[in-house]
Amino acid sequence: MFEAHFQTFEEPEGGVALTARLAAFREELARRKLTGFVIPRADQQQNEYVPASDERLAWLTGFTGSAGLAVVLTHEAAVFVDGRYTLQAAKQVDGKAWAIESLVEPPPERWLEQHLEAGDRLGFDPWLHTSSAVERLQAACAKAGAELIAVDGNPLDAVWTERPEPPLGQVSIHGVEFSGESESAKLDRIRGELARLKADALVLSDSHAVAWTFNIRGADVSHTPLPLSYAVVPQDGRPTIFIDARKLSNSARDHLEQTAQVEEPAALTTTLAALAETGAAIALDSATAADALTRLIKEAGGKPLRGADPVALLKAVKNKTEIEGTRTAHRRDAVALARFLAFIDREAGSGALTEIDAVEALESFRRDTGALKDVSFPTISGTGPNGAIVHYRVTRKSNRRIQPGDLLLIDSGAQYQDGTTDVTRTIAIGEPTAEMRDRFTRVLRGHIAIARAVFPDGTTGAQLDTLARQFLWQAGIDFEHGTGHGVGSYLSVHEGPARISKLGTTPLKRGMILSNEPGYYKEGAFGIRIENLELVVERTIQGAEKPMNGFETLTLAPIDRRLIDLDMLSRKELAWLNAYHARVRTEVRPHLHGPTQLWLDQATAPLER
Questions:
Q1: Of 198, 260, 205, 268, whose CA–CA distance to 235 is shortest?
Q2: What's the rounded Cα separation, in Å, for the pair 358 and 400?
Q3: Measuring CA to CA, how many Å separate 341 from each of 144, 346, 531, 596?
Q4: Ramachandran category for residue 145: left, alpha or beta (phi over 0 → left; psi -120 to 50 → alpha)
Q5: Is the CB of residue 515 less than 8 Å from the CB of residue 531?
Q6: Which CA distances in Å does 149 have to 29, 103, 536?
Q7: Which residue of 82, 89, 370, 388 has the fewest CB atoms within a 10 Å radius of its CB?
Q8: pLDDT digits over 372-398, tens only?
Q9: How far apart are CA 560 and CA 426, in angstroms?
Q10: What Gene Ontology molecular-function terms does this entry list (predicted)?
Q11: Which percentage of the chain shows pLDDT scores above 70?
């Protein structure tokens, strides 16, 4: 009935079948006189989604999560993952060949201190680690009396005989009707930041920053319209973009050449070296710039200035055109979501649908808009115990039938040219238990607390994070992920630097878009998450002594009323929910027909105690 064009459900290779690769890799390390090697889940630019040619961690270990690291020593090996991926790693990685360890607390460096021996030679690829990551590895090696070796040529690539070719996705122009600002205006603002940093030039090592600055998009990685590229922006003179010419049509090249010199990627090192030889102070993004770039600048006589990429903050604050575009994208997406939720309510109770059916149906409804460019990440469709796996990805092997008594957690998003969406809904299939309703209502109350928050200018995400957890904490429970992440404008669905989490230290500014997604996960039973996207806006308060901000909710989709324990909601929380549903009904109903209109009327009807 439905099919997915942008997602696959094949089981990745894993487990014991990969142990021969580990043996071959150890032989290569021995040949290079290395006693160990560090394999991050990274490409040269620390992208969240990396091209198939850079999936080294997955190829060697079987672990396919978006964050992780492996260390291979002569007689032992470990895969390091964070709390989101503990269950996934246990299923994908051969426990006899690999230990599974924490990526965060304790960090991998602690493990290295305990397992390296004096005289060991631990190798790493300086193109795949930031300088700060290398400094942490260096400290761990020093404590163990081992030596850290920067290799020229990754030894894993030497044994990966069927490694895919690097991607050559075609570059498209992201016109000012979507971007809202010309490239020259953006470059003027970036040069203003360079003056503030006292830098002679800035390296854009994050392809998202290149895409934003020069108003281009691409197709080099999954689900994010990213053109893998670099740029160097000098304080004086024309910037240079480093991108494979095979990705550029004549019109794309003409667009870029209006403001920049266009060179092949290989020219980056020679251009930087020539700049550094003049003694230039060159700003580097500490989050994405490879350690190889810092080394190159130092060796050529330049001064590397490591810090936050100023473009990240410029990009995170959306302009009026981008804000209006994302509102339009969310209204469009809401129609697809309403059709999907009505379909699930109509069909899932029979027990005939599977998790994959839900993914395919939702993508099909989004394709029916005629505007879908891609999904913004692989849809998380988890029912019953699979819903408790935070970053679950359904495969043909794990695919579970949706049954009465289950909760279905569906976390999905879309890439439209005018905006990026990300939304999670938890749906009751049949009659929920009292425990499900209690947990859902606690999550909902935390979600509403964020949505209703009013906060002074300069407030950080860390200061708001507690609001989302307070009602879970009262029951002695919590969730192991951040409450919210930044979202791009037809770029990455996970965009820095702002986030709502314990680690969110960037002040929230008007024009930023963040997710609001508290959850609860009962291992082996069910998962709950409620996610909307929020726009930071000005709040006018009578008598306020400082500028105040709040959130405008962008997402427009019903929240399952059957899962709410009304006795747990305050009067203001209930008023927020009814007002939200009234807005959904007003904005979405005119674009629906017949039975789906009637379904929406019921799904958004006011609740009364």
A1: 198
A2: 11
A3: 56, 9, 15, 9
A4: left
A5: yes
A6: 12, 22, 45
A7: 370
A8: 999 999 999 999 999 999 889 999 999
A9: 7
A10: metal ion binding; metalloaminopeptidase activity
A11: 99
| Domain formed by 320-601, architecture | Alpha-Beta Complex (3.90)
CA dist 597 and 593 (Å) reads 5
The C-alpha atoms of residue 507 and residue 449 are separated, in whole angstroms, by 19
User: What is the token pair recorded at 20?
Assistant: 């021969």
Which ranges in the chain are annotated with CATH 3.90.230.10? 320-601
Instruction: Report the relative pairing of strands 519-522 and 240-242 from DSSP bridges.
Output: unpaired
CA nearest to 490, candidates 418, 587, 574: 418
Asked if 398 contacts 92 with a C-beta cutoff of 8 angstroms, the reply is no
Q: Is 408 helix (H, G, I), strand (E, B) or coil?
A: strand
3-state secondary structure of 275: helix
What's the pTM value of the predicted model, to 2 decimals? 0.95
Give pLDDT tens digits for 223-274.
999 999 999 999 999 999 999 999 999 999 999 999 999 999 999 999 999 9
Task: Show the CA angle centred on residue 494, arms to residues 473 and 547, nearest 5°.
Answer: 70
| Spatial separation of the C-alpha atoms in residues 589 and 248, rounded to whole Å | 42
Q: Which two tokens stand for residue 376?
A: 């913004």
Cα gap 522→442, rounded to integer Å: 14
Residue owning tokens 């991050």: 40
Q: What is the CATH number of domain 15-159?
A: 3.40.350.10
* Distance separating alpha carbons of residues 451 and 551, to the nearest angstrom: 6
How many whole angstroms separate alpha carbon 51 and alpha carbon 393? 18
The third-level CATH classification (topology) of the domain covering 172-316 is: Creatine Amidinohydrolase; Chain A, domain 1 (3.40.350)
Q: Are 389 and 479 in contact (CB under 8 A)?
A: no
What tokens does 432 get? 């929920």
